[in-house]
C-alpha cells in the first residue's frame, strides 16, 4: 500500500467529517425554533420573570453562544471548535460540556455495543463457515439453525421478551440499570459481577437477533468458495482438512464478511438508542434520548457529529485492514 | 537447468523399480453418478497400465469420462458420484484400499494432479510460496522451513519460473505462469504418476507449447508416468507416446501415438482422426455423424453402434465388445476385431 492511497483515504475521512459537521451546523439553523428562547420561555412561564428581562437574558445568552454574529462567522468559529473537539455546553446539564456528556456515557456504549457486535460477528461467521463445510460433524453444523430462526428479530422485541421471561418471571437477572441501586462503583470483584449481571440481558437482546444474519451471509459465501478451483486443488495437493478449511476456505469466505461488518457498524447506534433506553443504561443512546426530550440541541448535535466521526474513523481503519486481508486490493 | 533437490521422501520410495514393471495399473475402474434422472455410468471397467517415463494421452468427446477417470484415480469423486469398484495401483499400493488419511498422504506424493482450470487454481489471498510450502508440509515431517523453501524455489526454476515468483500472488502472474506454478506444485514431491487435466485449455497456442514442453521436461527429470487429458489431437500427437481413446465411459482403444494416427483400429478413433483438418487436402470439414450418447440412456451392446459406419448387426446391438489385445500389444474394444487381431467383417 503506497503513501498516495493512504493520503487519499485520510483526505476522504476529513471530507466526510467536514461534510457531516457542516450539515449538523446548518440543519438546526434552518429550523424556526430557537433553543434558548424555548428554554427561557419555559422558565418565564413557570418562574414569573418579566418578558423584558427574559428578552435581555436571551440576548445575553445569544451573545455568549455567539449567535448574534453573522452566520458565516459562526460557521468558521464552529469548525474551529470541532477541531478542538469542543461541541459547546449542554443546555440541560449546564455547566457540563457536550464533550463531558459524551465522555461520561461513551464507555457504557462501547462496552456493550462493540462487544456484542464483535461477539455476533465472530460467532455468526464461525457457525456459518462450519454450517457450509460438508466435513464438519452434523451436530456442529446444525448449531447455527436456532440463530437463523431468530434472524431479524429487532433488539427491542428481543429485549422485552428477555426482560419479561428472564428478568420478571424467572427473576434470574436484574430488570435494568447499569448496576444495582445503592452500590458505589469501585474496582472490586463484587462490583464487576454486579455490573456484568446487568449487562447480560441487553447484550443477549443485541446478539441473539444478529448472529443469524452473519451465519446466513457466511454460509452462502462458504458454499460459493467451496466450488472454487483453488479449494479443489488444495484437496488434490493432499493438504489436511484443517489447513484447507483455514487457509483456503475461511480466509477467502471472510472477505465479504468484513465488508458487512463495516456496514453493520453504521446501524449499531440505532440499536444503542433503543436498547439502552429499554434497559436504562447510561450510554450514548440514553444521553441522546434525554437530550432530545430536553431540547438540548448542543448535546444532540454533538452526539450525532461524534457518532458520524466515530463511524467514519472505523470505516477508514477498515479500509486499511482490508488490503491486509486481500492482496488483490493492495494492487489497485 | 537446475534439477530438483533430492529429498528424503523421494529417496525412500522404491526407486529401483525394473523398467518393464508398470508403475501404474488401473484395473476395472468403475464410477457411477446417481442423479435424479437415473444412474449414469461415467466409467465402465476401465483398465490400462503405464510404465515409468511413459506419457499417455487420454482423448475423447466431452462427457466421455476423461476427467472422471482423473478424479477417480485421485479418489476425488464427489457425491452423487461413487467409485463402485476397481483398483488403481501405484507402485505396489492400491489407492482404493487406503483409508482417507492414507489417500490424503498419497495425493501429490504418489500421484499428482495438475488442474484443468489453472486460472483459478491458486488461492488469491496466499503467496505462491505459502501454497507450495503447505503442500510439502502436509506430507513431509521434520524438514526445516528453509529446506522446504529451497525445494520450492528449485521446483519453480525447473518449470522456468523466476524464484521471485515464490513471494508473489496469483493475480500478479499471467495464465501461463499460473499453469507453470501448478506444474511446479505437482512435481514438488516427485510423484510416480502425474495426471494433467487439459493443462493448456485456457492458454494461447504459444503458451500452450511452452507449457507442454515444460511438462515434458519435468516429466523426464523425475521419470514419472504422465497422463495427459485433452481433446486437442494435434497437441497430443506431439506430446505423448501412447494414446487412449474414451467413448461413453469406456476405453475403446489404446495404442502408440504413431499407430493411432496412421492406422486407427476402432471406428470411433478412425472418425476422430479423419475429422482432423488436413493442410494437404483442403476440403469439407468432416465431423463425426450423430451425437455423443447420454450416459443415462446408453445404447445397448456397443455404445457406439448408432454412429458406427459398419452397420447395425445383431452382435453390435446386443453384446458389449470386450477389450482385446491385438498382435503388437495395442488394445481395442470393438466387434470388428478378435483376439488374433483379425478383422472380421
Automatic annotation (TrEMBL), chain A:
Residues 106-322 form the ABC transmembrane type-1 domain. It holds the Pfam family BPD_transp_1. One of its GO terms (cellular component) is plasma membrane. It is a multi-pass membrane protein. Keywords: Cell membrane, Membrane, Transmembrane, Transmembrane helix, Transport. One of its GO terms (biological process) is transmembrane transport. It is found in: Cell membrane. Belongs to the binding-protein-dependent transport system permease family. This is Oligopeptide ABC transporter permease. It comes from Devosia soli. The lineage of its organism: Bacteria, Pseudomonadati, Pseudomonadota, Alphaproteobacteria, Hyphomicrobiales.
